[in-house]
Design brief:
224 residues, alpha+beta, 5-stranded mixed sheet, 5 strands
């Protein structure tokens, strides 16, 4: 068995990083933190990240966007249901699916099922976003202000977490038998700067030891 060659080292490092973050997320939740992947958290904020408003204005804007999104979702799938509600297909109808050649009855059954599921998914997403606003709404402004700074220094933390009324900016590092993964200068600056926005920086170290063994490949010719 040989050591890990350089051409797969990057892949194994990513694998280790992914496991480290999963362990960190599980640990934080077990310890009573509300925890969100930082990138996903920002995507939930949507266009709010470009707004410079007070907290209550941000909360109202967020809720309006969530309401509008639900309305758009309902309108679209209601139109879809109407399209497939008639007994006979519209004149000139062609199967829009990748699998062409469905009959009208087959397409009707499937498309109505899809629309029904999308209605339910839209309602669930709406509830999830309301809960998101309930948990994080009072902290929208400091978090968004901090995001502007992060864009300037080109740094994205791993997680954002909350416990009680305190919000934490979390950077996760692995610790192996070779030592602690280095904290970059931009990461250090980004974490420390969190204090200026009323946020608490957190360095979460995950001890981890992953080994991989690679043997010599063997060729077998497949015969007919």
């Amino acid at each position: 068995m040989s050591q890990i060659p350089n051409y797969v080292r990057l892949t194994t490092n990513r694998y280790k990083g992914s496991i480290t973050e999963k362990v960190a997320s599980h640990y934080l939740k077990k310890e009573g933190f509300v925890c969100e992947n930082f990138t996903f958290f920002c995507s939930k904020l949507g266009r709010l990240i470009y707004e410079q408003k007070k907290t209550e204005e941000l909360r109202q804007l967020f809720l309006k966007e969530v309401e509008d999104q639900l309305k758009r979702n309902k309108w679209y799938w209601q139109q879809h249901l109407r399209e497939y509600s008639s007994r006979a297909p519209p004149k000139g109808w062609k199967d829009p699916s990748i699998r062409r050649g469905r009959t009208w009855a087959e397409a009707q059954k499937k498309e109505i099922e899809i629309a029904t599921n999308q209605f339910e998914a839209g309602e669930q997403h709406y509830k999830n976003m309301l809960e998101f606003e309930r948990l994080w709404g009072t902290h929208f402004k400091p978090i968004i202000d901090f995001l502007r700074f992060l864009r300037e220094v080109n740094y994205t933390p791993d997680f954002i977490a909350k416990k009680g009324d305190e919000v934490f900016v979390v950077e996760v590092k692995s610790k192996t038998k070779h030592g602690l993964a280095p904290l970059g200068e931009h990461q250090r600056k980004g974490l420390v700067k969190a204090y200026d926005f009323g946020l608490t920086p957190m360095l979460l170290v995950v001890p981890i030891d992953i080994s991989i063994e690679i043997g010599d490949p063997k060729i077998t010719i497949v015969k007919s």
